[in-house]
Amino acid sequence: MRHLVAFRLAATLLLSSFYCAALAQQPTPKPTAPRPTSTAPAAKKPVATPGKVPGATPAATPGKTPATTTAGPAKPGTATPAKTPASTTKPAAPTTPPAAPKPAPVAPPKPQVPLPANMGSADPKVRYQNGKTLIAQARYDLAMQELEPITPPAARFDRGPEAAYLYAVAATRAKKWAEAEQMLNLLRNEYPTWPTIAEAFFLQGQVSFELGEADNALKVLSQIPADKLPAEREAMKATYLPRVKDKVLFQTLLQNYPQDAAVGRAYADKLVTGGWYTEADKSTLDQLVTQLGLDRTRYTPRPKAQKKSSYNVAVLLPFEFDDPSWEKQRKNQFVTDLYAGMRLAQDSLQREGRPIQLYSYDTGADTLQLKQVLALPELASMDMIIGPIYKSGSKILARYAQQRQIICINPLSQDADLVQDNGWHYLFEPSTVTQAKQAAQFAITRFASRTAVVLYEDTKDEAAFGQAYKTAYEALGGKVLQLRRVNSDVEESLGAGFAGLDLKTVGHLVVASDHRKAGPYTLGVLQAQGARLPLLTYASWLDNSRISLGQLDSRDVFFVHPKYLDKLNPGVRRFRQLYIQRQNLPPSVFAFTGFELLYYFGSQLHQNGPGFQQNLASSGPISGAVFQGIGYPAGAHDNQYVPFTKLERLEVEVQNPVGFR
């Protein structure tokens, strides 16, 4: 049976590949609205002694600009004129037109690995070998199809237990947790004497954790003999227990498994670094420190930050002060727009008697400059940190924020992995997985038919969207008939994605792709088949020059549109007016984002103080000042509200909206 060791090591939590893969630097975000052609003002590089921050030294700090508030414009909805703050300047307009961009080279398609011979063979030994080969090729769905018929005892295959285990491995790698659980139950019930049954219990623990059933996961893991997989079990607990976001549930786990050191240590971490600690937890934390022999210095929570009349917020963005060239300024347009929006929010909060002091730091485009900024003693005295832009820097700042217990907000990323297991790190944007879950909820309530076909682009984010959509939609009672991956750079791949589909018999179609070829190809297939089913896709299709608005308006096309701006909304109209008064150009979507981010989280600082996690989790969704809604319920760390549009008509209302005044 030891030939399964390689699969167990790979499937074990998928620890070596699933959670420890290095994240590449995030590319410059793509705007959902056209960028203005002029240049917005960037934060000015300081040339004199900066303003004082509590705990900061009076000497000038390179790369830092304090933004002091002035009696500037009120938030959108008021009629106070704007004043340009002293810490921003407007660079001269460019005199040289930009050179025509060179087309990016298209990478050649990857060669297709041939499928195993005799797929679907009547010989169980051939199917078994095919299943192993397909798993090695990462063709998990096909592997499951090959292995399933030879798994039950009725198949009378002498390697039925191994086939069932390999099926479960393929299902977990495809993130089909329900299918994996079903097969593992068969394996445990029908083959209880299988010599390697501990492998099945271990994999069942992972599946239960992924399904959010932490109590069952710990119960299953406890049934493994003590001498089997001890290090792997502890690694699994260390990976999954920090993801439990419900404090009451974690307290139940602590009661049910009082001698489990991993549970106790994870709960102590949640109390100290996860923002869960209250005075009522003092005795529990003291008991855990004594029982587990934890370092009392490390597990002594910081005194709860008191509410103040004014708060200091650090803004860590790649302003690129050292490169004043027009090309760099144009490339960094989204950064200066983002910061300009924050400055307007600062003025609005000042008008309301809720002052925020902004301190901007140039982090550049690499992690070295970010680390230099984080080494400044004054950063530890900040009440909140906004930034940075790139993933590599976000991971560094996330660790810093957790150690220092300072809430940090990533302004643009949609990667939920960045805020995983960190109670001090938030995304302002809804994550890709959240968008998929909300899209599934929208579809189940909007579309009469309960069947769907989901196509997703061959990228990490779109793969996460596709799988999350299928899981959420089927949990709500729907059925995803096909879940297929496509590579829009290869027309043959697009053709294979739609091959064999009769879209006239499907309830709705989901296409998770930003690729400019995906939209025209999809609409062409729908036209060729005469299919009129609803289509759910990304809002980026609205900016695709290859698709006319007439093509979209003639069909039931709905867009996942996190950055939807209702142009008739008074807040949107007022912000646009104030921004033009100050910057002499219309605001981009990044300017709106900067305003909403600081206005929302700045208000949280004044309402609840610097440690506002618990209050945020219970506050529910609210109507944003310019965007449709914002919400972080039940300990979520990415915005859980995602609007959907059909061209310019908003199709979803905010639950329990709070009016913007």
What is the topological layout?
Layout: H1 5-11, H2 15-18, E1 42-43, E2 64-67, E3 88-89, H3 124-136, H4 140-147, H5 160-173, H6 177-190, H7 197-210, H8 214-222, H9 230-240, H10 247-256, H11 261-273, H12 282-292, E4 311-317, H13 326-331, H14 333-351, E5 356-362, H15 367-374, E6 384-386, H16 391-404, E7 407-410, E8 425-427, H17 432-446, E9 451-457, H18 460-475, E10 479-486, H19 491-498, E11 508-512, H20 518-529, E12 535-538, H21 549-553, E13 557-560, H22 570-583, H23 589-608, H24 613-619, E14 644-646, E15 649-650
Parallel strand pairs: 4-5, 4-6, 6-7, 7-8, 9-10, 9-11, 11-12, 12-13
Antiparallel strand pairs: 1-3, 2-5, 13-14, 14-15
Helix pairs in contact: 3-4, 3-5, 4-5, 5-6, 5-7, 6-7, 7-8, 11-12, 14-23, 15-16, 17-18
Describe the structure concisely for a colleague:
By secondary structure, the chain is α/β, with parallel strands linked by helices. It is 41% helix and 10% strand.
Description:
- This protein is α/β, with parallel strands linked by helices.
- Among the domains are: 124-292, Serine Threonine Protein Phosphatase 5, Tetratricopeptide repeat (Alpha Horseshoe), CATH 1.25.40.10; 311-427, Response regulator (Rossmann fold); 432-560, 3-Layer(aba) Sandwich (Rossmann fold), CATH 3.40.50.2300.
- 41% of the residues lie in helices and 10% in strands.
- It has 24 helices and 15 strands.
- Helix 3 (124-136) packs parallel to helix 5 (160-173) and helix 5 (160-173) packs antiparallel against helix 6.
- It comes from Hymenobacter chitinivorans DSM 11115.
- Residues 35-93 have a biased composition (Low complexity).
- Residues 94-114 have a biased composition (Pro residues).
